[in-house]
Amino acid sequence: MEQAWTLERMWSGADLSNGWSSAVSEYGYCCTIQCTKKKSHDEWILSVNPEEHCAYSLLVDVVLSVGAFHFKVYRDLWDTSSIVLQEKTRSGSRVDVTLRLRIIETLSPQDLNGQTPYRDFEISCKGRSWFVDVTYLASIGGKLFTEWNEQRSKGIKKCWVDGISTYELDCLIDATAKYRQIVVTRMNYDVLVSVSFRYNIGSVLRTVESFLMDAEWIHPIRRLEYAVCYKLARLGDTISRKLVSSNTAIEKLHEYLAENDETLIQMHPDVLISLNIHPDHVLS
């Protein structure tokens, strides 16, 4: 069952004739909705800013409704000033606007730029550095974290990492060490699934798999591609069984190919086999 909304705020008959904006300050963050009139459309921006003394991050779902249009953002992490969504509509001069917010989790971030008695192992990659608790990271598992912990047990306090981009490493460390738990979001899951598969970090990979199983806003064929590429058996079985049993497999496949301007020959053969579409199958 879907969780109830934490916050629901409505503006009836908002006057858009000269543009429109409004702000809501709740839970340590200020959400600003701004509509700018353009020649052929209205541009809507939802931005978020942490308030001055806010010391935590929020993992949230957000829906901005403008008349009959519903713009949805799932599993968004709020920790710094950012634009949550930017969309275009043709709404007329007056419209009902609704903001819905669901707080999934409140998270306490750690500053990985500074050393502490327990966060005393320095990771360095191409000019970037992080101080992490390798005992905790080793409990997550995987080759990379285990190697760091072994180095620390030998008295080594700094490790230079190569073979991975700074962006990938930053994403991995943020998702595992920053909140002292595994945090998967709409912005990091794509990198996390690749890096955790490459370094055999099973607990992270399983968490991303659970995320993808719930992520119905991601096209089912795309989720099948993840399942095939990263050997996510539970995800693959669940998605393929649902598509085959509902007789929508071919329809969804055509839809996905059209959306991505791809042809059948570009699709991974194991995705097709999981949908009971074999090499001699003729698609109409």
Automatic annotation (TrEMBL):
Q: What is this protein called?
A: MATH domain-containing protein
